[in-house]
Design goal:
The chain is mainly alpha-helical and 372 residues long. The chain is built from 14 helices and five strands. Keywords: Cell junction, Cell membrane, Gap junction, Ion channel, Ion transport, Membrane, Transmembrane, Transmembrane helix, Transport.
């Protein structure tokens, strides 16, 4: 059984090679851990506790009624939420039902565990795709090159290997950047789409759920309706039909307590705020991505901010020759190598580009002189 958790330990361990950014990691690592943790917590609460308890005064077996109400869902009356508890109604959303009155059924608690697990898979999908596309490119380029244990000659050799790769692959990394940008767009659409799906699941009450909870805490205690009770009611109704002794259909109304919703409401308050913050950060990262793609000066500025000891002239030479995808690889390298080493890489890269430019000019001049 311990082998089951060994893979999870590998998943949460600290990565020492970074081929993405902090916001990307919030999606596939932090959010996945949160959702899987909530899945386990709710699963334990349902299987080792009483997720539903029903009150009735009829001759119906308790376990039969509770099993039926859990499977077929319970309901509340939206019109009863605004009535005075203890005066007009016994509990929020609980009142005598009249024909034609709107019912709000609550069947989501049967699916929350599966939904959370599926959400975790959707958040992890970009990481899986990116690992396939990256194929340890950044890890191989930065492997040991920033390690202080290497001798100076070894460092110089590693540096020249890296520079040769960068020079020989100028313009080959645009698709690499395109895939990563598309995955960042997926991250934003995924979190927004999941907020929308949860809103549908919770009866169009989840979009402003977090804001409503904050407003609720500042309202007068005597004149307020808890939004968490509207989305996750703790007391609901259930209708059960049986045959009487004469063969007539008999209707049984039951009040059902949902202890599981006390946990659900707390977890989903956290999820609402986490997803909203995550969406805002993802949108900001996309703005950053498009600015760096469309504005070359921004790319130089970013590298200077990441490694402020760079020689501006060397950096200008490099940025003049490379494409935006090549810059993205350099940007990832700044997260994995020593800044002094990166400065030397840019210096050697610039010198190589200058030498190639001189040779090209010399060759062109000789060709011109050789003309008849």
């Amino acid at each position: 059984m311990l082998d089951v958790f060994s893979d999870f330990d590998e998943y949460i361990e600290i990565d020492y090679t970074y081929n993405d950014n902090n916001v990307f990691r919030l999606h596939y690592k932090a959010t996945v851990i949160i959702l899987l943790g909530f899945t386990v917590l709710l699963g334990c609460s349902q299987h080792f506790g009483d997720p539903i308890n029903c009150i009735h005064g009829e001759d119906v077996p308790q376990n039969v009624l509770e099993t039926y109400c859990w499977i077929h869902s319970t309901f509340t009356l939206p019109a009863a939420y605004d009535k005075r508890v203890g005066i007009d109604v016994a509990h929020p959303g609980i009142d005598k039902h009249t024909p034609g009155e709107t019912k709000r059924y609550h069947a989501y608690y049967q699916w929350i565990i599966f939904l959370l697990f599926f959400q975790a898979l959707l958040f992890y999908a970009p990481r899986y795709i990116w690992e396939v596309v990256d194929d340890e490119k950044i890890k191989n380029l930065s492997m040991e090159v920033g390690c202080g244990a290497l001798q100076p000659d070894d460092k110089a050799e590693c540096r020249m290997i890296l520079v040769d790769y960068l020079k020989s692959h100028i313009g080959d990394h645009n698709v690499y950047l395109l895939v990563f940008t598309l995955l960042e767009m997926y991250n934003l659409l995924n979190v927004l789409g999941q907020l929308y799906i949860m809103d549908l699941l919770f009866g169009r009450e989840f979009t402003s759920f977090g804001i409503d909870v904050l407003k609720f805490t500042n309202m007068d205690q005597e004149n307020r309706t808890d939004p968490m009770i509207k989305v996750f009611p703790r007391m609901t109704k259930c209708t059960f039909h049986t045959f009487g002794s004469s063969g007539d259909v008999q209707k049984h109304d039951a009040l059902c307590i949902l202890p599981i919703n006390v946990l659900n409401e707390k977890l989903y308050v956290f999820i609402w705020f986490w997803f909203v913050v995550l969406a805002a950060l993802s949108a900001g990262m996309l703005v950053f991505r498009f600015v760096t793609i469309l504005w070359p000066a921004a790319r130089s500025f970013v590298l200077m901010q990441k490694c402020d000891i760079l020689d501006k002239n060397d950096l200008q030479v490099v940025m003049k020759h490379i494409k935006v995808g090549d810059w993205f690889v350099l940007h990832l390298l700044t997260k994995n190598v020593d800044f002094f080493y990166f400065k030397e890489v840019i210096r050697d890269f610039a010198n190589e580009l200058k030498e190639d430019a001189k040779l090209n000019r010399k060759g062109s001049l000789e060709d011109y002189k050789a003309l008849p």
